[in-house]
Amino acid sequence: MSKESNYYTWNVEDEVKLRDDDTKLVVYTIPQLLMNTVNNDAKSPYALRMQKDIGEAWNYMSYSDYQSNSLKVARSLIHLGLEESEGVAIIGFNHISWHLAFMGAIHAGGIGIGVYTTNAPEVNMHCLNLGNCSIIFVEDINQLKKIREIREKLNNLKAIIMFMGAPDVELDNNVNEYNWIQFIEMGDSIEIKKILEKRIMNLKANKCCSIVFTSGTTGFPKAVMLSHDNLVWTAKAFSNEVAKEINISYGNERLVSYLPLSHIAAQILDIIAPILFGSTIYFAQPSALKGTLGLTLNEVEPTLFLGVPRVYEKINEKIMEKSISNPTILRKIGRWAKRQGYKQNITHPDNIDVSLSFKIAEKVVFKKLLKALGLEKCKYIFYGAAPMSEKTMQFFLCLNIKIYGIFGMSETTGPQTVMPKSLFSPINVGIPYFGTKIRIDETNKELQIYGRNIFMGYKDNPEKTVATFTDDFYLKSGDQGALDEKGFLSIIGRIKDLIITAGGENIATGYIENNIINELPIISNVVIIGDKRKYLSSLLTFKSVVDVESMKPKNQLTAEAIDWLKSIGSRSTTVREAMIDEIVLQEIQAGVTRANLKAINKPSMVKKWAIVPRDFSLPFGELGPTMKLKKHVVYEMYDTLIENMYQ
């Protein structure tokens, strides 16, 4: 490894120093990692599996074929003019070709860059130019049209490859548009094979191989540069900790790939970590988050499952809808079982001292429910990417389903903590895994992190890169944290979410928002307003049914929301009806009042609130690709509603 000058950089061609750690894990490039697994191919015959539709046969690709096809992609990329350290963008749902494009780009000395399918054209243009993308993979004609729209504004575009979609789609070869079949055989020459061999030999573990874009909740996304070592070391160190908990079996673990591969959590869990253990990735249908995920889980029966909080919220809603329609006797049994589950998991989370009632509930209800969800064989169910609400966590504990919290971010190459199964807690996100360190800044409670998982820097952004590190090279996370006596981490807020009122009070909004949601089962989102204002106000949204095709919220309220409305004497069944229903408005005010009783001081109380006429969503822009709330968009979109609360 050649001489490096610093632990961070903003130049994609630079090498960085690797931080010292106690794991002594071997430094690998990603092609070296894949080669190691290929040498064990007999023990792990299946790498990637896909099916055309739910219920159909699963096609597979072995690790040996995975490598040889990645090399084919790399050669074709070189043929199309890919230079070392240029970006290769991939825009599409999870697919075998997504993996091959990513791995092929890295083998060819390029940078694998996932771009969210939900991006608007102007965001695509920002990401593609910032990533210096010369080759773009798109899944179908819809994504191709978005690129054609901005093609003339892309600085370094050399070719576009469509890896899915109908084979009869008209592509313009004159401007280097190709389908997968045309593309994959392009680099089959002795000369290009020699170039590829040389590039693989030149790869260095401390150089950038992947760019992950931040969620863009405060503006245009930043380009997080990750090295080979970031990805390999993190996957290995984190997996070692998980292996202690669940006894990972080489070649026998199954995972369902459905979270966007543009997100670092999916890149680690679906691409890098499986190579380490010869695990098999099953690709969900593109309609997974529109309702087919449950069907895939039932077919695959994964042994590991990661979800973002909104996925678990949707599962919660589905279970509630079904239970509401059950006969009275089954509903009574369900309520009894939930009481046993909650009592057991709060008083004895280690399940050492188990009551007879709990054993009956487990046999009659809990095991059947896990099987129905497709999670019966799952050894570890966990969440990340955003905080889990107390209410959602309690719901699953009632069903004896422990969902283990993990804290992480793009800049930590995904996971930063792990929660031991024997020390489960619903109120924290675990402990730093071996080889990493965390500390809390006493001045502002900011969580700071150190380890080989810490990213290289933000591409072409020296100001933000320098500002995100301390003098001793810890990462400033931007999150406020607290550590208990055992070293377990709790996230208590975001520094950027701090509101400073006109009276000079510093107020963390997350705690207030959660309190209101916990008081009112009809509420899906709470946004606190109050920066530079005399008092706090809030925007509220109601839980409504989502159109499975467009993913847009409907006027119809969810079964859970309607059930709650009935319990307070309301006959409303739609958002518009509930917004003007006096019974509902009075109950919301009562809930806000109860939440205010938990406020740490008077300035932290919500004085006024307003209901947004529809739920927040991805299509309308309030939510980002990882389902995080874009507060700056909400402020702009509902400016009039906000200002009316301060008249």
Automatic annotation (TrEMBL):
Gene Ontology MF terms in the entry: long-chain fatty acid-CoA ligase activity
Top-rank taxon, per record: Eukaryota
Gene3D superfamilies documented for this protein: N-terminal domain of ligase-like
UniProt cross-references to PROSITE patterns, sorted A to Z: AMP_BINDING
Documented EC number(s): 6.2.1.3
Record-linked SUPFAM superfamilies: Acetyl-CoA synthetase-like
AMP-dependent synthetase/ligase domain sequence ranges: 56-458
Assigned GO CC terms: endoplasmic reticulum; membrane
Keywords, in A-Z order: Fatty acid metabolism, Ligase, Lipid metabolism
Entries under Pfam families matching the protein: AMP-binding
Protein name, UniProt field: long-chain-fatty-acid--CoA ligase
